[in-house]
Amino acid sequence: MFKFLRLFRRNSNREVTDSLYEAIVASARQPVFYSQWDVPDTPIGRYEMLSIHMFLFLQRASSGSDALVHLSQDLTDEFFKDVDHSLRELGIGDAGVPKRMKKLAKMFYGRADSYARALAAEDKEALEAALSRNIMPQRDTPWPQVGHLASYIERATKSLASQEDSEFLSGRINFPVAE
Length: 179
Known about the structure:
Layout: H1 14-28, H2 31-35, H3 43-61, H4 66-89, H5 97-120, H6 124-135, H7 146-162, H8 165-169
Helix pairs in contact: 1-3, 1-4, 3-4, 3-5, 3-7, 4-5, 5-6, 6-7
């Protein structure tokens, strides 16, 4: 789907990449996810929400122009650099970072695949099941708010589909407000 890291390639879209990534992070940090929909406000819960928003952008970009596909790779690189930086801020040493990065990358691509399949099939139950399994794996009881998150993802998918490639290539992305 998307190549992992191209660390040694110069990013000719730095301002655009930074602008898009900041908007993705801001959308992933909407307080309603954590305060009303019970997504854990922990490093892994925030990773899950960031992963969802990255997936949404990458899913949209995959059907876009060649320039947008290239930009999506720059954004993927930025995402994984940010994850690497976050691991180091959490106190993970140099020896432990590559192992954890490999695990987090595998988690990301596995989640992206399950979310993409559920959305393609227009199967909200499958999307809810994937979200519950990924975001609340230790929960013994059903997660009542998962339907809100699934609906948000469906709305975001439609919203991003309606945005022109030129908007993304200019560094603008609009996610819906989570309500």
